[in-house]
């Protein structure tokens, strides 16, 4: 869950992935992808009307832009997309000029990182990402016209899994093979058997659904709303999903986190998750099932592992890293994460680094220093080590949006045009 507040100090007048509070004073906006923890305030009338009245623009990848224009057709002109790996020059209302380059993030279709460049500063905002170093190195936007790597002083980093317990994850191909094996095993046991895929998010599992179709030539049943608001705009998904119940693989086909079922079938539920898989290594299984085989878990991550993060930081050698995901309810986790950040950038900085508290919210940095003063012994009965069970849901919707859809300004959500995205490149998730 992103805790980034939208602002980059070196680039005044812009806001990223947060569209409420002080961010309403910005004059240029950016959205890394359409998951709700990166869309705070975007659905509110105050923000949408400000975009239109002030003739402001929110920039994103083409896939995200098409979704936004469809969802808010009355404000379609406020949403624009930028090219990948090519710099675009923009200027804020206060005449601050800078370049921005979109880089693929590999988190979900349309997810991007933003590389911001001015005369004095170069800052990378990753949003949510999962990339291998070999993929990252190929991005032309990271290099000067002479072919040298740009000097990136600061990174605003996706730190979702920046913990030693998430040192590594199986590759996407390994995970997809394990998921498909669970499906195949169950479907072959009995012609009445069906599969319920719990992907933990409504939007973002497209690569999984694509690989399932590729292997079984069988589409996955999804609900009407998911199809109308997402899949019909993605040509790649035409054969991969269906509105018909006459298939043996289903995913949120009766509404979000709900499943159409029949008493005549036997269901295997496959939960696809990452947070469950602590201390995974290549010697361990990628999937597990219960004794009756009706419930299984499979490891699949759309966020970078600690090793993947470490590899990229070692490559670009930033002077400073700010965490986009701070577990403020678990101080020991926060400490571990910040220590790992310092390990990754040690030796990169020619001048003294900012203190750790500069990378935390004002509320949490006091907790950090309080925790530093305590002994290594943790009082598990007290409030100093609150272990919260965190869901790795990455939903594109939230309750506020549901309320807006049903009650507020329905004209904002009316059906838009039928423009479809260009085919998105599934290989970026490989």
Structure description:
With 430 residues, the chain is α/β, with parallel strands linked by helices. The chain has 10 helices and 17 strands. It has a 6-stranded mixed beta sheet. Strands 13-10-14-16-15 form a 5-stranded mixed beta sheet, with helices on one face. Helix 1 links the parallel strand 2 and strand 3.
At a glance:
This protein is of the alpha/beta class and 430 residues long. The protein contains ten helices and 17 strands.
For the residues shown, what is the average pLDDT? 82
* Number of structurally distinct domains: 2
For this structure, what is the CATH homologous superfamily of the largest domain? Ribonuclease Z/Hydroxyacylglutathione hydrolase-like
Major sheet strand order: 5-6-7-8-9-17
Tell me the distance between the termini.
Answer: 23 Å
Count of separate DSSP helical elements: 10
Largest sheet: 6 strands, mixed
Task: Give the number of DSSP strands.
Answer: 17
Task: Pick out the low-confidence regions.
Answer: 350-359, 361-418, 426-430
Based on Cα principal axes, name the global outline.
Answer: globular
The assigned CATH architecture of the largest domain is 4-Layer Sandwich
Question: Would you list the SSEs in sequence order as H and E?
Answer: EEHEHEEEEEHEHEHEHEEEEEHEHHH
Strand content is 15-25%
CATH topology call of the largest domain? Metallo-beta-lactamase, Chain A
* Rg (C-alpha, Å): 22 Å
Q: CATH class of the largest domain, anyone?
A: Alpha Beta
* Alpha-beta content class: alpha/beta
Query: Helicity level, as a percent range?
Result: 10-25%
